[in-house]
Structure formats: structure tokens, C-alpha cells
Amino acid sequence: MDRVPALQEPLKKVLGPATAKVMAEHLGLHTVGDLLHHYPRRYEERGQLTHLADLPMDEHVTVVAQVADARLHTFASARAPRGKGQRLEVTITDGSGRLQLVFFGNGVHKPHKELLPGTRAMFAGKVSVFNRRLQLAHPAYELLRGDGEEAIETWAGALIPIYPATAKLESWKIGKAVQTVLPSAQEALDPLPDSLRAGRGLLPLPEALLKIHRPHTKADIADARARLKWDEAFVLQVALARRRHADTLLPAVPRVPAADGLLTAFDDRLPFTLTEGQQKVSEEIFADLAATHPMHRLLQGEVGSGKTLVALRAMLAVVDAGGQAAMLAPTEVLAQQHHRSVTEMMGELAEGGMLGGTEHATKVVLLTGSMGTAARRQALLDLATGEAGVVIGTHALIEDKVQFHDLGLVVVDEQHRFGVEQRDALRGKGKQPPHLLVMTATPIPRTVAMTVFGDLETSVLDQLPAGRSPIATHVVPAADKPHFLARAWERVREEVGSGHQAYVVCPRIGDEDDDPKKAGKKKSPEDEAEKRPPLAVLDVAGQLGRGPLQGLKVEVLHGRMHPDDKDAVMRRFAAGETDVLVATTVIEVGVNVPNATAMVIMDADRFGVSQLHQLRGRVGRGSAPGLCLLVTEMPEASAARQRLGAVASTLDGFELSRIDLEQRREGDVLGQAQSGARSSLRVLAVIEDEEVIAEAREEAAALVAADPELERLPGLRTALDALLDEEREQYLEKG
Q1: Which pLDDT tens digit goes with each residue over 332-357?
Q2: Minimal CA–CA distance to 401: which of 427, 385, 419, 380?
Q3: Whole-model pTM above 0.70?
Q4: How many other C-beta atoms can be found within 10 angstroms of the C-beta atom of residue 114?
């Protein structure tokens, strides 16, 4: 395999240290192979100009356009008091719009000579606004003359690749660097088995790399992308399939519940019957728990679909079989909430070893970082002796001091809030690997689940239990129609008047040091409302108490309160003593107050689609219908308003998660889930390429079953090594 090193050659040897340093620091590219896999974002045709009308604010862009006119102005300034200051203003056009370029001082001489009317060039810079017009200040540029000059050589062929670039390195410089290393593409080892590639009519990898960087036709680009998508999907699915295969080889203690034990006693005291979905998912989980290798299952369920009950039944089954079960919650508020609801559901079955406990009872303990010393010591003792069958806690469960008698099941609530290391540390507390159940209320489209959680089997709860009420959602355009906001507060008073309660959610707490510099960043032109900082809990609570909700009992809840105070506020709200709770997103997950029927979300445009859906799930949890009002000052035509309209139009979390994914780039989602490592997906789009991912998963599973060590596929092993750099290897190891 002497041919591998060509792509592993460090860029500094090929391109020189200065360029290599920028590529490493700003684009994460270190080797020739990295650069060959840095694909163009799009392509420009020589005869066709890009749309200046669609330029995004504050982004680094590359445009191909023609100079319409250029004017040199002189002006007086502090540096040039005698009117000797020079400013060159160049207007470029592409038929769809016009854009102004501006150069100052000594920087005007070269462009003044070169950027003559009629000249075509590529321009790169950051889009800003001056005098209400878009402009690029001091853009870098590359002339596109067809006079046999160097430029035409560099951009050989009819299609000009535009690369993801940075202010320090323009697209065409990246293009020139790619041309330098392109001959090495011939030595790329192909990760796809020949039979798979031939069977699907895919290009060989060297040819695909040539065509994506130097296409002659649009068909070249399509063929190259089709091939490279398969690489990404297949290599990732092979990594996950090997993970699943390795899991089946791990030993685990089978946990089969006793015939007439704790689980049966618990089921007998439930005041309702399980939904079909809950029964089906429970059966899948019990089958996994009875196996001799560890369960790795993802339980997705709509907000309020009864995931906690399913998880609790799994925990009780393990206790029945002589083991212990731990539930890991992301916040103290949620851990306390889970502990309260579990002990309420279990009644005397949660009073093991106490007067009033029944014969099958076990002890349910809470363990959080803020507990008093005595309570904490007792909880640790109950875990070590096995007295406590069920423990619910925050990451305090992971500390070295915590010892389990026989940990059999770990339930992780809201997986996306936990680092892989935290989950792994808890799993390491079992004598043998415990079973793992991961829960999330964020609906994940099937393809994303296959891509991000592909080493977990997936169960979905998509029915709401009987007795859950529909939630009506409306957008309240506070700037266009202030009387709508006044009506929103009247509706809250009406709900309270009829014996119910309400939430008001704000993006911020309000005791932060407001940094105007930070507040001023990330403005988009549609976004006049962004000029003020987001509304804050402490301010809004005061205004409501003095104004539209005067006379009602209003309390606040946020993450920086002392845990005891938070718990006291939640208890008062749950007991119906508080009318309105003004809170941050600390209530987003798991808070369950069936009497709360209304929610007003202030500055709703500052939240993501999935987050709004999560928040909304806190109301309508009882028999009375729920109401969710999304308050925004965004103009009607803005993307933010369309997003809120989507949330108002459907209660289907899976539909919303697709919208969410289409609006954000998948890299954000995958990057977050893949332990923050740079997303490995460059051409694969998780939503659009559903078929490719599903087929790649099947092919990968068959291949790994036949050859787990990939002995016959050195190219695939090399690609896996590149994907699974140490950080991601650990991520998959820890599952």
C-alpha cells in the first residue's frame, strides 16, 4: 500500500507554510486528502452571472460580475486634511442587481487601473450596508479576461467552482491550491467495494474527485456528487454497523421481570390502560433487556406521549430482576420533577423499607448536586447497599463517590443535552455493561436518527395518551397589531379566571451584564427588531405584575436561582398556588402541570422550531384544551415569521423537525450530536438523501456481518480511519 501517503502529504510541503497555516486554522484542512475533499459549494458559468439580488448580510461571499462604472472621489479627513483622501467607488452588475464596491487610501490605485467598465471579475468580501445599500469594502478580486492570461488557465473549463472560503483565503486561491494537488487524486484509494460501485453505476473515486473540482458539464457535477454522497453515507454507516456488531459481542446480565413482582403490582395500580404504542415499545424494550448483550435503544416520543411511563416500567422490570436502574436528567428542576412524578405514580411501591411500603416495594432516591450532606449521604448508602432500586439524578450521579450495588439499566433523558463522556461514565458504574435507554422529546426524522444515532435501535411513540387535549397555536404580531398583544394578556386572565394557570416564556433572565457589542452582532437586514436585546424574565414579570396581569399571583423561574428556590417555585405552581409562571426555557423539558392551559412565548422568533414545539408541549397536558401564543415583532415577510407560521400550523413534531433541519444546515445538527467534532457531511443532505442513507445502511450491515474487520477492503479501512479521528472514534465507542 505504498500509494496511500500521497493523500496524507501535509499541505505545508505542497503549498508552502503560509497558505497551509491559513487552511489549517480557518478551514480545518491539513493534508492533500483534506483539500481534495473540500468540495465547491456551487459553480458559476462564464456566460451567466450570479444573483447580486440574493446576497446574505454579514457573510463572506464570492460573486462573478461585470463593472458598470468606477468613480474616484477625493475628500478631506483627519488623515488627509487638505482634501487629499481618495475613495474609489465601483458599481458591478450581474443583470439581477447592482452592488457597490469601495476602496480607500493607497488601496485605490491598483483597482482604479484594472476595474474599468466592461471588465469581468470574481469579487470576494463581506457584505455590509452603507447608506441603506449593500456594499463590499476592499474586496479581493480576480480578473476574468479571456486573453490567454493566467486567470483563464486557472479557471479552465466552462464552470468556475466557488469554494467555501474565509476572509483570509478567497475562493479562487483555494481553487488554485486544489489545482496544484489535483494530480494526487489519481492515487485516492476507493472505499467502496467494487461490486457495490459497479452495481450502482457509480464513478471510481479518482474520477469523481477530478469531476467535482474541474467539471466540464453539469452532468460531470451530478455524477461526482452522486458518487461522493455514497462515500459519506456508506463510510458513516459502516462505522455505525461495526459499533452495533461490537455491542452484540459485549456481555450483559439478562434482566427478566418476576412473574408477579413489582412491575405487575405497578401495572395493577395504574388508573388507565397503556396506549397501543406504549405496549408495543415496552415489548421491544423488555425483549432487549432479556438478551445477553446490552440494549442500546433510542426512545423518541412526542411531547406528552408517555415516554416517562415506558421508561419507568423498564426500570421496574430491572429492579424486579434484582438490579438497579438510574435515570439521568439534564437539570435539577427536571430531576426533581421526575422524582416527584415517579414516586406519585408508584405510591406505596416507592416506599421500600418504610412503614406503609408493600412487599414488592423498592426505594426511589433523588441525587443532585445541591442536596444537603445528610440526605446525600443517605442516598449514596442506599445505592451502595442496593436498598434503592431506582435513582433519579443529574450528572451528580456520575461522580466517583457514587457506587451502585448492581446497576442494570441507565435511562438518559434528553440525550442531546449530555456529553458522551457523561453517559459513558455512568455506564462504567455497572459490574458488566448496563442496558441503555436514551429518551428524547425532540422528534428526529428517520434519516437523521439513522445517521446520528445509527448505533441505537429506535422506538417511536407517536400516539398521545387518552385525555390529552389539542393545543391551539397562534402568532401574535406585536409590532403590526399591538391590540393582538393586549388581547393575549386578556386571554391569560380568562384562563386564570376559569381556574387554570399560564406560563410566560422569555429568551433571557435579565440579570446579565448587557454587552452592547454582543447584542449588536448578527444583524440581518430584515431584522429591525434585533436592535434591542431579547426580552428578559425579570423585566417582563415586573411589567406584567404592574400592568396587564395586575392582581394575579405572578412568580419567576430561571436557571440561576438557587435549586431550593427553584423547587419551591415549581411546587407552588404545581399545587396551583401561582397563577402565572414567567420563566426561561428551564421549563422546556419534562415539566408537567396538567392545570396549566396557556403559554405566551415572548420574542418567539428567538427560539428554534423544535424548541418552540417542546415549550408548547407544556400546556394542554390535562383535560382542558391548551393555548400557545407566539409573540413576535418580526415583519410579516420575514423568514422568522414564516417559521412561526409553520409551528402554528401543525402539532406534528416530525414535520416540524424536517422544517427545522431544512432551515438550519445539517452540519449544525450533526455537529452537535457528534460530540462537537467537525461534521463529516460535505455533500450528503440528510433530508434530501433519505434513500441513499437507507440503502447505505443496508449495504453496510450486510458487509460488516460478512467481514467485521474489513480485511478485504483496505480502501474502506483508510476512509474509516479518516472519518474516525480519535475524537469521533471515542464518540462511537461510547455510543
Answers
A1: 878 888 898 899 889 888 887 655 55
A2: 380
A3: no
A4: 14
